[in-house]
Amino acid sequence: MSQPTSLAQRDHAVLWHPYTQMQTAPLPVPIVRGEGSWLIAEDGTRYLDGISSWWVNLHGHANAHIARRVSEQLHTLEHVLFAGFTHPAAVELAEQLLEILPSNQARVFYSDNGSTAVEVALKMVLQYFHNLGQPERRTFICFRNSYHGDTFGAMAVSSRGAFTQPFWPLLFQVEFIDVPTPGREAEVLGQLDALIGRPDVAGFIFEPLMLGTAGMVTYSAEVLDEMIRRCHQYGVLCIADEVMTGFGRLGHLFACDYLTEQPDIMCFSKGLTGGTMAMGLTTCAAPIYEAFLSSELMKALFHGHSYTANPVACAAALASLELTRAPECTDQRARIAAAHAAFRQEMEHQPGIREVRHLGTVLAVEYDPGEDTSYFSRLRDGFYQLSLEHHVVLRPLGNVVYLLPPYCTTDEELGLLYTVLRRMRELVLNFAPAPSLPEYLHD
């Protein structure tokens, strides 16, 4: 039997990919190099990365500034356990983040990805009330169609769907409320009011202003401010999951910068290191941290990871943060936001378009194929194939196609992304509806 020779064939022989039915999936696209907003395949084909490689890359692939800082750190200290020890990069990163986060954020807890950043937040809330002698407060309020990660706690506070169905019996129960999209604010505030006075409610977790995997669904800062205000009146802790929205994606450095109210806990990952390597962190307000201070050892937060506060990841995050805070990056984000706004005006109200949503550097087009759709629709597969044919990397969410490009993406490159979205509208106008899917496969 001949041995696989291409990178894709070698991959197929030994690897198991995420969110993939390995029996029927085509061979993966073999990428060997990155350069700015482009990914270069084994055969030399260049693909424009329109989604920042799952929302992580801020400043372009193989960024020289970040690479240099990572190299320097590797030659200084690659890792040290973070229980009983510390190192300069961890301290510097925490100091710099707390300077620019909402003013009530006082402590930084390091982990290693977005899901675990959320797990830490959930455990902080639950043990906070346990340490205060209120263990009955253990219920979380969450948005329907939300997504907070794939570990068990993160799955529990995310929308129930096909991806989590095998695990439903093992997920702790939460209370779901609708997303307060424009026109539904009063209705959703009523749903919140019906829950927050209950003695078992502990926390409200949310993706601020934009729900990512729900299709980049947006809602206003004003209604989120009111929701946080009402939660705080009843002592309900608020968790802002900024794993996707942080580090300039929605215009401001953080989505919570649009708010007047402040969350109690915040979660970060993805763009934290500029897409260089895995890292997560959770920040909290001082009263939460103080509830864990005691002469009793068992009131400590017993959570950690082998690679907590890895020095190389911290160095990458510091380098990325330096670029993000530079005036040039602010200008890049504003330029992309302006281009998205113009394209939104062009696409809105056209046949085949249900809605166009835009905030900061994120643009989402919700196409209208004349039927209900889900992540598993044939239309999604058609969109994906069309984007690859145009040498563009996109990851459609059913009938929603979004752009979330690296900040270095040029106007010409944005033009290519917009061309693909226009071609997708043509595909929708010729789309033949299919038989309905089983209920559990719908979003």
TrEMBL record:
<comment type="pathway">
    <text>Cofactor biosynthesis; biotin biosynthesis; 7,8-diaminononanoate from 8-amino-7-oxononanoate (SAM route): step 1/1.</text>
</comment>
<feature type="binding site">
    <location>
        <begin position="114"/>
        <end position="115"/>
    </location>
    <ligand>
        <name>pyridoxal 5'-phosphate</name>
    </ligand>
</feature>
<feature type="binding site">
    <location>
        <position position="54"/>
    </location>
    <ligand>
        <name>substrate</name>
    </ligand>
</feature>
<keyword id="KW-0032">Aminotransferase</keyword>
<dbReference type="InterPro" id="IPR015421">
    <property type="entry name" value="PyrdxlP-dep_Trfase_major"/>
</dbReference>
<comment type="subunit">
    <text>Homodimer.</text>
</comment>
<dbReference type="GO" id="GO:0009102">
    <property type="term" value="P:biotin biosynthetic process"/>
</dbReference>
<dbReference type="GO" id="GO:0004141">
    <property type="term" value="F:dethiobiotin synthase activity"/>
</dbReference>
<feature type="binding site">
    <location>
        <position position="147"/>
    </location>
    <ligand>
        <name>substrate</name>
    </ligand>
</feature>
<feature type="binding site">
    <location>
        <position position="241"/>
    </location>
    <ligand>
        <name>pyridoxal 5'-phosphate</name>
    </ligand>
</feature>
<dbReference type="InterPro" id="IPR015424">
    <property type="entry name" value="PyrdxlP-dep_Trfase"/>
</dbReference>
<feature type="binding site">
    <location>
        <position position="270"/>
    </location>
    <ligand>
        <name>substrate</name>
    </ligand>
</feature>
<dbReference type="GO" id="GO:0030170">
    <property type="term" value="F:pyridoxal phosphate binding"/>
</dbReference>
<dbReference type="Pfam" id="PF00202">
    <property type="entry name" value="Aminotran_3"/>
</dbReference>
<feature type="modified residue" description="N6-(pyridoxal phosphate)lysine">
    <location>
        <position position="270"/>
    </location>
</feature>
<dbReference type="GO" id="GO:0051537">
    <property type="term" value="F:2 iron, 2 sulfur cluster binding"/>
</dbReference>
<feature type="site" description="Participates in the substrate recognition with KAPA and in a stacking interaction with the adenine ring of SAM">
    <location>
        <position position="19"/>
    </location>
</feature>
<dbReference type="GO" id="GO:0004015">
    <property type="term" value="F:adenosylmethionine-8-amino-7-oxononanoate transaminase activity"/>
</dbReference>
<dbReference type="InterPro" id="IPR049704">
    <property type="entry name" value="Aminotrans_3_PPA_site"/>
</dbReference>
<protein>
    <recommendedName>
        <fullName>Adenosylmethionine-8-amino-7-oxononanoate aminotransferase</fullName>
        <ecNumber>2.6.1.62</ecNumber>
    </recommendedName>
</protein>
<keyword id="KW-0963">Cytoplasm</keyword>
<keyword id="KW-0663">Pyridoxal phosphate</keyword>
<feature type="binding site">
    <location>
        <position position="395"/>
    </location>
    <ligand>
        <name>substrate</name>
    </ligand>
</feature>
<keyword id="KW-0949">S-adenosyl-L-methionine</keyword>
<keyword id="KW-0808">Transferase</keyword>
<comment type="function">
    <text>Catalyzes the transfer of the alpha-amino group from S-adenosyl-L-methionine (SAM) to 7-keto-8-aminopelargonic acid (KAPA) to form 7,8-diaminopelargonic acid (DAPA). It is the only aminotransferase known to utilize SAM as an amino donor.</text>
</comment>
<feature type="binding site">
    <location>
        <position position="304"/>
    </location>
    <ligand>
        <name>substrate</name>
    </ligand>
</feature>
<keyword id="KW-0093">Biotin biosynthesis</keyword>
<comment type="similarity">
    <text>Belongs to the class-III pyridoxal-phosphate-dependent aminotransferase family. BioA subfamily.</text>
</comment>
<dbReference type="GO" id="GO:0005737">
    <property type="term" value="C:cytoplasm"/>
</dbReference>
<dbReference type="InterPro" id="IPR005814">
    <property type="entry name" value="Aminotrans_3"/>
</dbReference>
<dbReference type="InterPro" id="IPR015422">
    <property type="entry name" value="PyrdxlP-dep_Trfase_small"/>
</dbReference>
<dbReference type="InterPro" id="IPR005815">
    <property type="entry name" value="BioA"/>
</dbReference>
<feature type="binding site">
    <location>
        <begin position="305"/>
        <end position="306"/>
    </location>
    <ligand>
        <name>pyridoxal 5'-phosphate</name>
    </ligand>
</feature>
